Amino acid sequence: MEKKRTEARSTSARSRDRGRATRHRLIEATARLCMERPGAEVSVAEIAHAAGVFPNQVTYYFGSKDSLLVHAAFLGLLHDARRIERIGRQAPDAATFRRNIARAVLAMPSLPSVARALAGGISKPELAPVVDQHLQLLFRQSERFVSQLIDSRGWRARRPLNVEARTFWSTALGAVLLVRAGAHGTVADLDLDLAGALTIHDEPDPA
User: Fold this and answer.
1) Which pLDDT tens digit goes with each residue over 12-29?
2) String of b and e for 50-81 (b: at least 16 CB within 10 Å)?
3) Which among 113, 118, 112, 146 has a CA at the least distance from the CA of 132?
4) What's the whole-model pTM score?
């Protein structure tokens, strides 16, 4: 009896591992397709082919293609955010950090897909929890990065770091939504002072 229970647990663990691997392949394949074809519609059949799975596994693991697209968009954003962190670490001072981070974020290739994900969260309430889950992860990752950086450099922020991260990303993503909603030009054309959304500095606090 004990042997059967052990075998059942082992089979269940292998099944969970296969499921996680399939989910990961689907998200990675979708993110890659969206990056290769920004703004273009990607079909379930194309996603399944790229991931090496059956089309019905998209709905089995994610409920809908739209949900998968949200996961993929934020995966691309988190990958970009890690590259942005490397740029931030290279800055010799806080002013350069603010300027370089803002410039790099506005040029991130993942932003159009994330804008679609945010719009999906507005128009389709069932997607809102998925969007929120990924936004919270983004905020936490950014807060952790900034905390480590300012501790190692002796820099400061003029507001709590959780507010710093949320304000910065809300400004950046809001700019993308403006362009998607019809604002003239690109995100860079908005003359957005994204660097001004950061209060990280290396000067003494004003009296």
Assistant:
1) 667 677 888 999 999 999
2) bbebebebbeebbebbbbbbbbbbbbbbeebb
3) 118
4) 0.79
